[in-house]
Amino acid sequence: MNNAKKIVLKSLKWFGIFIASVLLLMFLIPLIFPGTISQQVKIFANKRLAAKLDYKKTSLTFFRHFPSLTVSVEDLVLYGSKPFQNDTLLAAKEVAAGINLKSLIFDGEVKINEVYVVDARANVFINSKGQANYNVYVAGPSKAPKDTAGKGTSIKIDLIKFKNWHIKYNDHSANILLDANGLDYTGKGGLSEDIFDLKTDLEIQKLDFSLNRIYYARQKYIRADLVTRINTNALTLVLRKNELKINELPLKFNGSVNILKDGYDLDINAASEKTTIRDMISVLPPQYLDWAKNTKIEGKSDLFFTLKGMFSEPRKVKPRLTARLLVNDGLISSDKAPVPMRDLGVDLNIDMPALDVEQLRIDLKKFNFDLGDKNAFRARIKSKGLSEMDLDASINGAVDLAILDQTLGLKDLELRGLLNADIKANGIFSMGKKLFPKTNGTLNLKNGWLKTSQYPNPIKDINLAANINNTDGTFESLNLKLDPFKFDFEGNPVFINVSLQNFEDLLYKIRLKGVLNVGRIYQVFAQKGLDVSGIVSADLSLNGRQSYATTGQYSKLDNKGTLNLKNIKAYTTFLPITFHLREGNFQFENEKMWFRKFYATYGKSDFSLNGHLLNTINYFLERNGTLHGNFAMNSNYILLDEFMALKGGDNKNKSLQVEYAKAENPKSSGVVIVPKNLDVSLNVNARKIGFKGIDINQLRGAASVSKGQIFLKKTLFDIIGSRMTIDARYQDESPLTANFDLALKVLDFDVQRAYKEIDMVRELATSAKDVNGVVSLDYKLKGDFDKNMNPIYPSLEGGGVVNLRDVEVKNLKMLSVIGDNVGANAFNNPDMKGVNIETHIKNNLIHVEEFKFKVSVLRPSISGTTSFNGLLDILVKVGLPPAGWISVPVAVIGTAEKPKIKFFSRTGQGILTAIYNRKINKVIREEKRDEQKSGAEQRKQKRAEERKAKNAEVKVDRNLKTN
After folding, report:
1. What are the CA-CA distances from residue 371 to residues 378, 411, 444, 555 (Å)?
2. How far is 545 from 330, CA to CA, in rounded Å?
3. Which listed site, 18, 83, 521, 754, has its alpha carbon 20 to 30 Å from 700?
4. What is the pTM of this model?
């Protein structure tokens, strides 16, 4: 007994010593090894990361992720890979790595087998060119500093834990946005092995997913239990056990994902079988979920989909998507419903090869429900394609909208009226081929009523009788009638009567009369935060045939009436600010729509128009119609900077192209985008125009907008006190690039004022800083604008003549250095009055034709080449008295600021031209000094470059004349 007691006490003693030792080590190890740990973190970052890594401090502890010994990096920020090196890829409150204790104590090595990341924000981004910001890990050897500790850091991860992550994945190349908030993730497996099974436990509180701006998921709760086999050699993921829950909808899927260099190879199958309609409804947007909670919903549902094939933006290939939705024995009813919705059934099949909507197949075999006697709806639709659609559809139903409203228990929407639909269609729909399915259909609504919770008054007395008929599948036999379509809103009745026959050559008869408060009726339907207002008053009668206008038979048209708009706000997808139509009074007279009074503002800019549009009816009828017109436009002020596509503004309805360009170039202004559907002539009279800090005054002349281009013809304006005449053409290529041609003439141009106030003058004529006085200019140029609407100088081509009418040229270094060497101070103030200087520009070089001037009794001449960056390759021939027949050649090289001269030499040092790729608007190579060449070689090269520059000038002139 005593022996047993001694053994127990001894055991407890040693166990206590062991526990005490462990606790002691748990406190001592973090104190012994912190330098080693911190050093190894820095070494690992230098060796393995191709991006900047910042963090506040490192620490070593057992207690943060007990029982693991973890090295923690606090307030970590990891920046993206090039070209996103200034943008945050990952920011985390804590990144911790579990350390193998045995290797640390006995081998002095840091072996990581666990990773923890807490309170993190990840921003994964792929731009429209396919460049990604996450390529920060360097797998191969690097020339990083050696491991001074003599031991390395190895990774053999068995556990990954993420807690409270916010991940945003934005792929502009594929138009995909995924936003996951409140993400918790646990991954277990031999992550450092070549092939391993990764067991995943994933929970996301709110998930948003959109494709091409269409949201397929908003604020969805996700729960996932997954097992994925990962082959790191082949970068293959095999989906073995995958159970997913989206809100209440369970989803199982399997397949594989191969990660390729330029995309993915996908083979995914997913299904949600033997679920309920309520489960299916749970994945609807959040605003519908409260409705579902208080509504009786019964029935069965099944969902299947597959995604198979390669996805590669560079190779322009995409996978095939198929999906099927089945709903059977559905029943929906609210507490107030007089009868429930029964026999709700859906059988929908979708097939989209290569994710191409032009190949989209939709087969809605059934969509039906019953709402009691004589109150049922049936629909069947089968289609193939989009722009050329093969359609077979049948829709039939009679629905009392009041019963439907009560049955569904809609809280924010009140409906009334008797709706009857009977439509059958079969055949090809193609606008290009002018085909329309054989159709016979009617749609009738009697005593309709519509009210929403967003506005107190209803749209009432809605009556619609629509008939559509087509007998042979062509546009010629297509007839459409709305007789009548009328409603009343706040005591203002609106009446519309439409008869359209023979869409091959449309015979139309339209009657429209009424007053509509756009702002108030928009509130009936609108989302909060959007500003729409204004009044529309119409009294129109339009009668005619489409060909009467196109063939000039205007006397056969009978279009008349008025349309008045007041305080209307309008958005476009390519301008950053809202147009505000203060007042617009329009009168229709046969083929013309007259602008009797039109006053609009755009930011700080204002416009008034007087004139007419031609053929407006055809514009709305044609698939790619163009508006033709002729106007006088007057303005007190136009600020062109406001029209640049990427400028800030109140327009939230921008195109994806503009939106992506702004996201990828947040500090850029973009260029002005010109509408492609206008062919309008303008007689412009603008008191003042602002452009990038330059004021243009009293602009008068002819302008036109045609085929996405702006043209100016013999347009006069005042700039820096001088009168200019300009012919010009402008065309945007994208929100970030544009091209232009211009020919300008100017008299009495103050050189010093121009040099101080206009950036382009400082760039094009660097020597102007040494010139005082007045010059005249006759010049032609073409080139490109960059993403801030500045000229790209290597893109410029053209030429012309500068007349030094009344100038003083003082201390021009290129001449002064000659005077310093010959002892002639007159070179510091040469007589250049009346001299014509002809130059030609191409590839960032300015080629100067020979011109002569006076320096005391000398008759120098200058010719050669200079560059926009100041490189010189100039020949100065100093003509000696009495008449300059004998001259001393002087080669001037170096730069404009530091010229170098060689007397009795006609051979300078050539300049290699810049190389500019006009297709991608990129400078491939800056100009630079050429290797030393013989005089004959340089003269030959010079003549070739001057021929190219002169040809460019001829092309500019041709472009302006032909347009």
Report:
1. 12, 19, 18, 54
2. 49
3. 754
4. 0.77
Rounded to an integer, what is the distance from CA 812 to the centroid of its chain? Answer: 47
- Residue 301 burial (CB < 10 Å; 0-12/13-18/19+)? buried
Q: Which long-range contacts (CB under 8 A, 24 or more apart) does 193-197 make?
A: 193/232, 194/231, 194/232, 194/233, 195/229, 195/230, 195/231, 195/232, 195/233, 196/229, 196/230, 197/227, 197/228, 197/229, 197/230, 197/240
How many angstroms separate the CA atoms of 655 and 670, rounded?
A: 14
Dist. CA 473–CA 388, nearest whole Å? 13
Q: Give the model's pLDDT for residue 947.
A: 72
SS (H, E, C) 882-899: CCCCCEEEEEEEEECCCE
pLDDT of 150 > 70? The answer is no
Helix (H) or strand (E) holding 449: strand 438-452
* Residue 384, burial from CB neighbour count under 10 angstroms (0-12, 13-18, 19+): middle
**Where are the strands (E) in 102-152, listed by range?**
110-126
Query: Which amino acid, residue 864?
Result: G
**The pLDDT value given to residue 100:** 60
Give Cα separations from 334 to 295, 297, 330, 331, 377 (angstroms). Answer: 5, 9, 14, 10, 19
Please state, in angstroms and rounded to a whole number, the distance separating the CA atoms of residues 766 and 844: 13
Distance CA 706, CA 678 (A): 6
| Three-class secondary structure assignment of 927-959 | CEECCCCCHHHHHHHHHHHHHHHHHHHHHHHHH
Alpha helices in 67-165 (DSSP H): 101-102
Task: Bin 800: left if φ > 0, else alpha if -120 < ψ < 50, else beta.
Answer: left
Token digits of residue 256: 């594989």
pLDDT score, position 315: 84
Q: In this structure, what token pair is assigned to residue 850?
A: 């020979």
* Residue 500 contacts residue 467 (beta carbons within 8 Å): no
- Residue pLDDT, tens place only, 191-215: 667 777 878 888 999 999 888 877 8
Nearest to 230 by CA among 261, 265, 189: 189
Angle of CA points 221, 226, 227, to nearest 5°: 170
Decide: 827 and 810 in contact? Cβ < 8 Å: no
DSSP per position, 647-666: S--S-----HHHHHHHHH-T
Q: Which token pair is 875?
A: 């020949």
Contact 134, 88 (CB under 8 A): no
CA dist 958 and 963 (Å) reads 9
Q: What is the largest CA-CA distance in the chain?
A: 137
**3-class state of residue 717 by DSSP:** strand
